[in-house]
Amino acid sequence: MTATSPSPPEEPSHDPDTAPVRVAILGASGYTGAELMRLLLRHPGVQITTLTGERQAGRPVAEVFPHLASFGLPDLVKMEQVDWANVDFVFCALPHGTTQDVIAALPKTIKVCDLSADFRLANVETYAKWYGHAHKAPDLQREAVYGLSELNRTGVQNARLVANPGCYPTSAQLPLIPLLLAGQVEAQEIIIDAKSGVSGAGRDAKQANLFGEVAEGIHPYGIASHRHAPEIEQGLSLAAGEPLLVAFTPHLMPMSRGILATTYVRLKGGATAADLRATLAETYAKEPFVKVLPEGIAPQTRHVRGSNLCLMNVFADRLPGRAIIVSAIDNLVKGASGQAIQNMNIMLGFDETAGLEVVPVYP
Ligand SMILES: NC(=O)C1=CN([C@@H]2O[C@H](COP(=O)(O)OP(=O)(O)OC[C@H]3O[C@@H](n4cnc5c(N)ncnc54)[C@H](OP(=O)(O)O)[C@@H]3O)[C@@H](O)[C@H]2O)C=CC1
Ligand SMILES: CC(=O)N[C@@H](CCC(=O)OP(=O)(O)O)C(=O)O
Question: Following DSSP, what letter does each residue of 214-265 receive, concatenated?
């Protein structure tokens, strides 16, 4: 995992007149798979040639996702049935823990963006501690590049395997990394309070995600023990130039999609909340997907639904020397499939916004 300083999108190098890139989506019957299909159907340079499912294999997309019925997509197949000679690029949208074997077995000529957590933690011991088993492909782990697109463009550009960031880590790191690089916030006292829609847990039936367990209420989970904490700490420690720990508490909200992260920081070196805002505004001034809202306007999940946007803002706290940062993303888009397509665009030299020029649905 590497991180570089942000730089604005470069001129695209892919020639749109050449043959389309043939894309396979592994785990197409899941939520992130559906979002990959929805967005890639409007991508000018790719053709979806292969879709896999496990229990849903053998079924047409029209049955599994009726909203995608009319776009001529191929039927879902089992992974074993895939002809890899017909595939140039793979999106791997399988549950974490299952993708290490799958990606290790792919032909090395195929570029891959993995949406799972399997290749995000550079230190395989940290991975084993948080995911409960030894990493099965440590060489690939070393090769993988962490795909926080705006902040690691050069790494992603040269990668064969990109580890797409987790949804909570995307929402937290996009504002915090530039502020730590600028030395404007204390590294050791960061508190991230985050809320997610239920689609963050995937489409698989689980008791915790039943309507009766989620509707008309909100609850924290994974308190002081969520596996996204080490992922966030990895990126923030690199930016701070020192190891750090964060206080991170996720909450489940009665909504289908969206993440809102409210982050509490202690200001450093005489910086003010206005300075933090100015740093973020300058860092992301030329970015198509990351926006600092006008002063005093708080981002909401409703403002990003269905889009690849991350909206953010900074507020002065009433407590002296502190600031509050609010960031919002759609967990299925900037937090998963949208960022994965952004990474593919960078890896293959497409215009970075190709397939992603989606205006949020509101309200
Ligand atoms: N949901 C979100 O907001 C985010 C998800 N992610 C990550 O992206 C990945 C996909 O997430 P999501 O789409 O939500 O998950 P889902 O549970 O909705 O979908 C999982 C997909 O994987 C397939 N699958 C399950 N088990 C296996 C297996 N053993 N072998 C082959 N295929 C299998 C399923 O097939 P079938 O249904 O046909 O059995 C389905 O297509 C996960 O690693 C997740 O952690 C990352 C960021 C955000
Ligand atoms: C609401 C909900 O359950 N969210 C998921 C995170 C989704 C995500 O980014 O997961 P990966 O790291 O596995 O890719 C969770 O808390 O585990």
Answer: HTT--EE-STTT-THHHHHHHHHHHHHTS----EEEEEE-SSSS-EEEEEEE
Sketch the domain layout of the chain as residue ranges. 21-165+335-348, 168-331
Q: Is the pLDDT of residue 274 over 80?
A: yes
Q: What is the CATH architecture of 21-165+335-348?
A: 3-Layer(aba) Sandwich (3.40)
ipTM of the complex in this document: 0.98
Provide residues with CB under 6 Å of ligand 2: 96, 116-117, 166-167, 196, 200-201, 250, 252
Q: What does the alpha-carbon distance between residue 63 and residue 53 come to, in Å, rounded to a whole number?
A: 13
- Residue 9's pLDDT is what? 56
Query: Could you tell me the pTM of the whole model?
Result: 0.96
pLDDT tens, 303-313? 999 999 999 99
Residue with tokens 């039936």: 205
pLDDT of residue 15: 57
Query: Which residue shows structure tokens 């705006």?
Result: 150
* pLDDT reported for residue 18: 82
Cα 153 from Cα 156, distance rounded (Å): 5
**Rounded Cα–Cα distance for residues 250 and 259 (Å):** 10
CATH 3.30.360.10 corresponds to the domain 168-331: yes
Structure-token pair, residue 222: 């994974």
Cβ 165 under 6 angstroms from ligand 1: no
CA of 67 to the centre of ligand 1 (A): 19
Identify whether the C-beta of residue 84 lies closer than 8 Å to the C-beta of residue 110. Answer: yes
Rounded to whole angstroms, the Cα distance separating 306 from 297 reads 20
Choice from 25, 26, 31, 32 to test ligand 1 binding pocket (greatest atom count within 8 A of CB): 32
Tell me the pLDDT tens digit for each residue of 63-115.
999 999 999 999 999 999 999 999 999 999 999 999 999 999 999 999 999 99
Active site residue 92: no
Atom of ligand 2 nearest to the CA of 228: 12
First to last CA, the chain: 37
* Look-up of token digits 């973020």: 280
| Nearest ligand to residue 197 Cα | 2
DSSP 86: G
